[in-house]
Amino acid sequence: MATETADDVLSVHDLKSYFFSREGTLRAIDGLSFNLKAGKVLGIAGESGCGKSVTAQSILRILPRHGKTVSGQVLLTRDGKVTDLLALGEESSEIRRIRGKEIAMIFQEPMTSFSPVHTIGDQIIETIRLHRGLSKAQARASAIEILESVGMPHPSRTIDEYPFNLSGGMRQRAMIAMALSCNPRVLIADEPTTAVDVTIQAQVLELIRQMQAQLGMAVIMITHDLGVIAELADHVLIMYLGRGVEFGSVEQIFHNPKHPYTRGLLASIPKLQKGHTLVEPIKGAVPNPYDAPAGCPFHPRCPQFMQGTCEVTMPQVVEVEPGHWVACHLYGGEDQR
Amino acid sequence: MLDFLMRRMLLMIPTLFIVSGISFFVIQAPPGDFVTAHVQRLEDRGQIVDREAIEAMRARYGLDQPAHVQYVRWIRSMFRGDLGMSFDWGAPVSRVIARRIPNSLIISLFSFLFVYAVAIPIGMLSATRQYSVADYFFTFVAFVGLGIPNFLFALVMLWVVYSMTGQVLIGLFSAEYVDAAWSWARFMDMLRHVWIPAIIVGTAGTAKIVRVMRASLLDELQKPYVMVARAKGLSRSHVNYKYPFRIAINPVVSTIGWTLPSLITGEMLVSLVLGLPTLAPIFLRALQMQDMYLAGGIVFVLTLLTLLGTLISDILLGWIDPRIRFSSM
Q1: Over the stretch B229-256, which tens digit does the pLDDT of each residue have?
Q2: Do B76 and B116 fall into the same domain?
Q3: Strand boundaries in A271-312, DSSP class E
Q4: Per-residue pLDDT tens digits for A63-78
Q5: Closest CB to A96 among B224, B233, B247
Q6: 20 to 30 Å CA-CA from A87: which of A192, B93, B199, B313?
Q7: Chain B residues within 8 A of A62 when measuring between CB atoms
Q8: What is the extent of the structural domain holding A274?
Q9: Complex ipTM, two decimals?
């Protein structure tokens, strides 16, 4: 989805990542394409199980044991030089120089994302020393500086704390500090606010926005919360069952949603009207991913289902207005199997 | 940490009291006492022992008192470091035990080293290569090891070594060193003999620890922090050594507490089969002869050693795991 331009820092083409198990093959990502522009925030939204986190793990090549990226391209542009991350070995030194340095990631669970038996300082300093070649003392000073910049109270003391001695909000700050410690070009934030208290969520989002503006990095914000997207993102990718169904600027997606699934997602955000809370849930549930429906994967739940078309062929991606792409038979386009 | 240590050591005192009390009364439980057993033996040889002599003997040993009085006496003398006299050996219990205990400790120590030196790497291999041929092979071997009783394994080993080399692997020392004082040569001679009982005693424990290590590491390998560490750019082997291996070892360290008692009982059985000069044969004899102070003294010393082992495992665990160091201590 979306045309390539010179200012793309990361572009993903026809990515397919599958999980192989005794139950069969799970097509977690099945032909996903999108572009991330330098210095911009791309929000990726969709229900649980649509492949948002697997997308992030596929880009960094850190899929869990049974997962495998079977095809596609992930192009990282650095100072005019383009590298296909999928062409690198999963354990090669090239990909390891990119992980944590060029592309850093913030994970969902700040508690379990840190080793419980090492101090947070130990784990941050490790990243700095690995990529920036600093001495122990320099790396420590740098880590304290970063902790301070993410608003960690008493950084020179908290650096020696174990994760279980910190609050959820402080742990997520430490996580963000660790991700930012090597000035990445791209920051992937995988549900960074899901596991923290509501009161902390706003602080974490504000911090990411602030650091993004300060460091000028590009951000992929993965979330199931469209409110987070509306607040932070420049562009939005809506995912359903391992595919992108709609891509556009945040205004296009929120004011002129085209795909019935996007419309359904927007309608399912609780709204207050005359004292009543109105929620319109999308009917049905996400299908069993081991047995994805034929044709458009959304057709069994779609309110605008067209017999004879939707369950037969996969809709093609169409540009409905400049920069606004949608994969739906309602908007025509040639058939694609 | 110091606070924790003090509390743990204080807790050992009531534990020792309870164990010593229970074992004393269990040893007392069978009908008769040492004098009955002794007289029985004399009469078997055709000697006639008159009643007065028997009563005099009872009075001399304090066996005419009720059991609880004997217990209090025993405990009281224990506070002075006196474990009492062995009726059977006619010598202080402490001296009888002291002569045998180094051999018991050596076998237990070597089987302990064997257990952990073998189990930890195999457990790690099994977990990192889950469902591989190596994993299945070691799992199979571990269950066989777990299933074979120690005494049977000892007999099989005796036969195997005898039929292959013609040597009878009985005892802990070669003939010329049995009664020699400790020296480098005697130590080396002991090393040549100790591995057989150590392996026999350790097999079952090894199998258990392999399972603990494997399960614990499998758990850790899929924790989010492993993916986070890989996302930082660390190589997989570096990640494994620094994080999951390090954390998965904690449950293994806590197994030391329950491995020690089983090693000690395992050592007892194997020593009887292999005829090793450890505490086991004299313990068995003391029980048969109702030589209660010797039997009680051995139980006491074994309990003390087990408690010390558990204490050491707790200290180790607190040392390597900050979550324990910072909580309830």
Answers
A1: 999 999 999 999 999 999 999 989 988 8
A2: no
A3: 271-273, 276-278
A4: 988 899 999 999 999 9
A5: B233
A6: A192
A7: 227, 230-231
A8: 1-102+185-337
A9: 0.88
